[in-house]
């Protein structure tokens, strides 16, 4: 996967509740850029992007709680959006970055977490695989959550990574992943056991995050805070994403730019070169944030 490309530094970052986050840090020079993965995946999904940005950006990817090699909390309240936002800030502070980008979840979590107005760098959010619509009305908390049901049906183990790759390439929407992004996930989002390869993020954990999104501690509260976003933002959507078309509503509420690109639900992971170009133009080319901010 990596060839001559240097492996990332792997940080184990303690959290305020006694757990630990894995942070992958491709510290090869350039402006720091924080990457957040979709639910059920891991920070290593961004290794191809880190390779494409080598020399232009210091790519930092955080495994959220219960994902990758971060601690899997047993307390369900740890998957509340505000709690995971604190994790993001702790992981980011550990590497002292000054810029942010990531999936839609960073928009709904990070702006809630500090409890004070800030002016961080540009934020690029995207319609990302296996995330929830950032709106309080997609699924009801008092009804079965179809995303959670689908997550719990996921296959948990495979005989080998080659078998896992073939399985994912045969199924939508995972088959939309670029080959390099899929390889990054296979490397960093799995665990080797004597009986084969297991998912690092258990499907029950993925389902729990989906279920939390429908409660008062999930998408409804985050939607309320969209209007308080204090940094310039761009919302990126795949033109053929299977989620409802709510991205225009999000952009209006956040006073953000909506950028619709050819592609599906994994729009950031279908074409690495296009994603790297997007980061260069929408993040790296922008003025640096004011020194002395929270990060």
* Overall CATH class: Alpha Beta
> Which range best describes the helical content: under 10%, 10-25%, 25-40%, 40-55%, 55-70% or over 70%?
25-40%
Uncertain segments are 97-119, 128-133, 291-295
Shape: globular
Write structural notes for this entry.
The protein has helices spanning 47-52, 81-93, 104-113, 146-152, 161-169, 179-188, 203-213, 219-225, 247-254, 272-284; strands spanning 9-14, 20-26, 31-36, 57-62, 123-126, 157-158, 190-193, 196-199, 233-238, 257-261. With 295 residues, it is of the alpha/beta class. The protein has one domain (9-284): Alpha/Beta hydrolase fold, catalytic domain (Rossmann fold, 3-Layer(aba) Sandwich), CATH 3.40.50.1820.
Question: Helix and strand layout, with pairings?
Answer:
Layout: E1 9-14, E2 20-26, E3 31-36, H1 47-52, E4 57-62, H2 81-93, H3 104-113, E5 123-126, H4 146-152, E6 157-158, H5 161-169, H6 179-188, E7 190-193, E8 196-199, H7 203-213, H8 219-225, E9 233-238, H9 247-254, E10 257-261, H10 272-284
Parallel strand pairs: 3-4, 5-9, 9-10
Antiparallel strand pairs: 1-2, 2-4, 6-8, 7-8
Helix pairs in contact: 2-3, 3-8, 4-7
């Amino acid at each position: 996967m990596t060839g001559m490309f240097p492996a990332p530094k792997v940080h184990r970052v303690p959290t305020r509740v006694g757990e630990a986050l894995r942070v992958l840090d491709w510290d090869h020079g350039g402006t720091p850029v924080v990457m957040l993965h979709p639910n059920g995946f891991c920070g290593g999904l961004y290794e191809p992007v880190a390779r494409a940005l080598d020399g232009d950006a210091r790519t930092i990817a955080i495994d959220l709680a219960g994902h990758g090699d971060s601690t899997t909390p047993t307390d369900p309240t740890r998957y509340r959006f505000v709690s995971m936002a604190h994790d993001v800030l702790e992981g980011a502070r550990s590497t002292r970055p000054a810029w942010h980008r990531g999936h839609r979840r960073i928009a709904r979590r990070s702006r809630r977490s500090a409890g004070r107005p800030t002016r961080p760098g540009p934020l690029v959010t995207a319609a990302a695989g296996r995330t929830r619509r950032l709106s309080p009305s997609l699924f009801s908390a008092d009804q079965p959550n179809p995303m959670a049901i689908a997550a719990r049906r996921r296959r948990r183990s495979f005989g080998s990574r080659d078998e896992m790759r073939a399985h994912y390439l045969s199924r939508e929407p995972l088959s939309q992943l670029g080959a390099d992004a899929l390889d990054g996930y296979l490397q960093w989002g799995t665990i080797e056991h004597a009986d084969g390869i297991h998912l690092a993020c258990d499907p029950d954990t993925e389902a729990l995050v989906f279920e939390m999104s429908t409660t008062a501690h999930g998408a409804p509260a985050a939607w309320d805070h969209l209007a308080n976003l204090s940094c310039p933002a761009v919302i990126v959507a795949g033109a053929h994403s299977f989620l409802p078309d709510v991205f225009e509503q999000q952009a209006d509420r956040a006073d953000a730019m909506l950028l619709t690109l050819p592609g599906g639900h994994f729009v950031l992971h279908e074409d690495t070169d296009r994603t790297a170009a997007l980061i260069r133009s929408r993040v790296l080319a922008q003025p640096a944030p004011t020194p002395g901010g929270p990060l």
